[in-house]
Batch of 2 targets.
Target 1
Amino acid sequence: MFSRKARRASNRRRLSLLLACLVIAGCASHSVPLRDARQAYYAGDLRRADELLVKASSKRSRDADVLKLDQAMLHLAAGRADEAERLLREVRDRFDHLEQKDVREATLSLLTDDTRRAYAGEDYEKVMIRSMLALSNLMRDGSDAEAYCLQVDQKQAEIIETGVPGEEENPKLGYKRVAFGSYLHGVLREASHLHYDDAARSFGQVAAWEPNFIGVQSDLQRVSAGVHSAPDHGVVYVFALVGRGPYKEETAAEATSNALLVADRILSAVGDHTLPPTIAPVKIPRVVAPVNEVDGVYVAVDERPFGVTQTVTNVNDLAVDQCQATMNHTIARAVVRRVVKKATVYTAKDQMKVDNGLLNFAFDAAGVVWEATESADTRCWGLLPAQIQVTRIELPVGTHQLSLGPARGGQPIGPANSAAVQVENGRNTYVLVSYPTREMVGEILTATP
Amino acid sequence: MDRRRFLQASSATVAAGSLAVLSGCRGHQYAHVLKDNQQDMVGSHTAGAETFNPLIDEAVARLLARQQSSFHQAGYQPEPVGPRRICFVGVENASAEELGDFKEQVYEQIDSQILQSQMFQPISRRFVETALRETRLRPDSLFMPENMRVFAAVLEQQGQPFDYLLFAKLTSGTTTANKDYQRDYLLTLDLVNVHTGQYDKESAKIRKAYHKSAMGKLSKFNPFQ
């Protein structure tokens, strides 16, 4: 009688442990609750998008930073460049802080999944924050734009140099560079009429990093031997945020031999053991580049066609390439987590001397559920554009009517939106427009810092 | 070792080891103000304060000293009353490194030191930029007499006549020895008298060695060798 009671109590304790394992298991994917907010943004309903983002951020504290990034894009499109800059700066500083390792989070993420970690941003996001900071500041007063441009280059150099801790070969050495920071730096330096040498250096860098950006060749020629603009002329730069940018989704990945090598190194570093013989596919985040119907913005000045914007930074390509470059490490982390979870279940069974067939089955089932409930970390900056594009227009001093519309393959595919721009002698005027789809989002922003 | 034993044995070590591998807690960043007598940090990859500050100090001091002596030697000639007006056009970076935020700092430091000398009275940079915008002249084209005259006339219209044009140029020379390299930084100041076309030039040099490792430094600069 006594032994039966004791056995029941013991079984209850074991089941409690199983439940505890399930409670700390991973949670649902990031992308679903935000879909509505992002759809509202793409539909041009900025107010609705803002409401949904605010609502989401009050419920999902772990997503707060990426939600702020989305809000910043929304503010920028709506013409609130100062608010956008404030949010971007806040997240930049927070990501810098979160880049440091945290032992508690690292352990918890091994027992659950990566969604338990504070999100420190993907490499491309860290660089793009600084790029968007430069753009936001430029559309405000431009006083800090040069500093942000320098930060773009500094950050990407730092990311590439740091590599992936624990990996013998640095997979980030092959990262494609973001040319936007250098381009804007060159534009700003040229506008001083004093620093043509800096401008030439910056444009030279852009030409090397973004060889498909043909427009920079004429920039390079001009700053090397010419001048900013003809007398009684000024320059209009049209910056366009074109297409829908990258997002992440969960996928099941086979543990490739290269990934297993990395995982083995991590495991070997913490003990004298090797990997188990087989590893089932693991859940990892994968960067997806959406197919966009718009690939440029056509520009007309005073009702005369001028041309189409050109890509200075392709965010989609950048994000996909970086995801691919670090894929082995991502899979390896998931494999290590799988091993830890399996080991924990087996150890628990041994420690508790599970000899009951049903309880043994329950433990195994719980182990399977524990592994199955983990989610890939799909948090990301969802409202990034697919491309940052630009075109340079030299115009006589005075007011001009600028028309901007969506384009594909160099041809207009939708109605244009117009704005009046003031061109000043020897100065730059900046215009920012956002075309995530064939409909413009927000308004055409103009600034003459 | 079978799979079960492997997993059992590894559970504890993995958990403990993961702490070791992924260890560390997020901390705050710290900073402190350097006192005047404290050494500048030394840039590990490019030149920084440790290079530019002494370069500027030396180049400007040499130029001013030479101007001072020529001033005394030519003392019998009638000299303009008060400090001579100087138009500092800018710093050209022709070195292998980008100057980043140091470019403006180099300009301002040179400008301030010239002002402090009381031999020269620099023209505000805002006037210089406005004149360049007005004339659409490139800074490197101001050496041409005709361009110089046009530029001087515009500044004079703005109430900023000047006697001298000053250019600064930073160059570098790199010597590579396997993975290590030495880079010589040269700051040159060119001074042109716009009235006579007379030209003066001074420069300062700093040599710096970069090493991939501490051993690399030791092997090339062993104090006991």
Target 2
Amino acid sequence: MTSYYFSQQISRIDLDIHQLRILTTLESWSFAKSLYLYGSNVPGRRESENDPFHLISLSQLAISSERRDADPVYNQFVSYFNDQDYADTTITAALDGTGKWGIRTTKERAELIALTSSFEVVYMDIIRNLNNAVAACNVADPSAGFSFTGGDELDQAAAMIIGSMEGTNFGGSSDLDDGQLLWNLANTRAFQFQTMNNMDYAVVNSELVDLLYAAKGELDAVVCPSLERTVLKIQQLMTVAVMQSVIRSAIAADGILSTSSDLSLVGGEVFARSVLPIINAHDPSTAELISENMIIKVGVNPVRDGKEVVADGFGFSITQGIKLSCSYLGATSTVDPCRRFGGGISSSTRLATHGLLMGTLLLAFTLV
Amino acid sequence: MMRGYSGNASITLKTAWLTSLLLCREVVSQTDLKGGIITRTDVKEYADLALDVRDIRSLAKSGQKSQVLGLYEEGEHSEITPGFRYSLKKMSDDLVDANPRTPHLLFHLYGLADLATNVPLLSEQSRYADGFIRDMINSNIDLAADSVVALIMWMYGTHLLWSGVKTCELRTAADNPDMIPLGDGGMDEFIALWIGTDQQPGTGDGHSLYAWAHAAGDKFGVNSPEAIVNSRIKLLYQEGATALSLKHACTKDNKQTQQQLWNVATRMTNEMVKPLFQWLTFHIVEEKNPDAVTLYALALVPQLARCRPSIYKRLKENLIDRSINFDLASVILEDLQEAYACFGFACEDIGMGSGFRSRCDLYESQRSLAGYRPTSDVFEVNSALWH
């Protein structure tokens, strides 16, 4: 059954986030809240003209009961935050100016709202769509023809990873101000962490696209175990840019006070929140270490253990918990999260990964 | 026949007529805007602003600068508040002073200020419309009426819609909603301003935004016979007016109204952008009139600040920061056509006047997300999805 949150224009959810950022930065809190609650750019699918028009909003995505389809990841987030509506709670408080964020500056609140929307709300819907593609595969009966909609779910996931604002050029927009979602985050970080491919965009993005195509081939061929592995790999790669972003925030926030209005503090907290539940599921002690350094607390200066310790935590987590090569994280001029785990990305690693992907693609198309 | 501006006798007559109208307001509480639109409330004074536009256009034809300026500043045909003439300049001032400022105005100021988020810096831009109109009255008076329509009335239309949503929100939150007058939730005022007095349905024979949108649609072959923009705005008006007419609208007992109005305002304001694209394209491709290009660039390009920043930046540089170089027309058109997607439009929603479509086919055939090509229709761009 098609999700209520299916839209032929779901890639436009990034416009909601972009416009939300503008309105909040300009202190138009009331209209920003309405935009968050009711949406503005994504019309929901209607089966007939008689169905009432509705917009899909970030708020709906943030509290939808369909998020359960994103398990086990969804459950990891709910358990970690002890709050079913963890992202909605944060965004609503920042919009209303209440709680922890009530005393922060307008720019900090605006940043928090936009980043939480992109990397907690939209993120979970991507996982939901990916899982639903696997579920569609598992119930498909190849002898009955290919009437299932899992391909749509994969396209929905792709649309929410990339977004409409990247444009049509291969690799995405050359103007890094354009994108709002994971794709942009990965490209933005790739330069600093030296994880760009030879076409000047992020290696993880290149691999994500290959994997999405591979997943579609596997779905078409109803090779569900392979599809499941491919989807898991997509989910793993989706954490890379977020982890790089926490490290980048740790570098920027190292040595500044918790009362500072430097946006790296907000970024550090939101990006950490977006990946901590996943790390916690594999390795609670590393999650605690990252939390203590990156989650803003009154009177406690951020990154108290130093940026290297935070980076090391991610180096450990990506290799031991998430089970990816540490080389995906790359290194900056000041920290190398992989210094104990094999060092920054190498061309041989990339080639090996691409070889693996090409093999998967070939297998999928052969089976079709 | 146009009435002359500043005749004392005409003002006296007008005042007497309005007084009698106000005395009858209990009886005459609706406004028939023709074409099937009869408002629930009396919004004739908003519709009558079209007559000021008519007279500005007529006076401009004979080059009467001071009369045009006087009519713009003082107004003649409309009294939003009984006993006080309302003018298009006053409308512009009301936008500048609006509290709260509504989304389209904020996006516009943000765009004019090069994406600055400093509120005082934005305020410096707030007289953009008035400044441009005065320049046109002095230097290219033929564009005075169009400038008023595209810059002031257009933006005020969006302001009326969003203000209605805001009022509905306040009432919905109030324990005693009767203390917050809802009026018609901005819908009646908006449609009166859009259509205007003396508009012949389904034609360009009129003076306000409806006629302006019709003329744009004509140039792009999208009228049948009414401009699609006008047909959709009328339908959306009916949808909004219906929501407002329901029992307990905008109260705790009917919290849905606010969302319904928000949906209607979102779709209406999206429709309103189409004539801006059409007029700007027309003046770049057909007329090659630099002042008219600047006018429609000033009306449209700042709105694109809420879209992809790269496209907005290039268009602002090519159309607002400097006079248009017509040798770059194809590059500019390509950017404009890419910007359609921000509003959910496809090329056919804007229309296909000769020479306008060159980039559309290419762009739509290569549609992808950063190179990723879907096999399902998740990236469909089609404004029909919005209705």
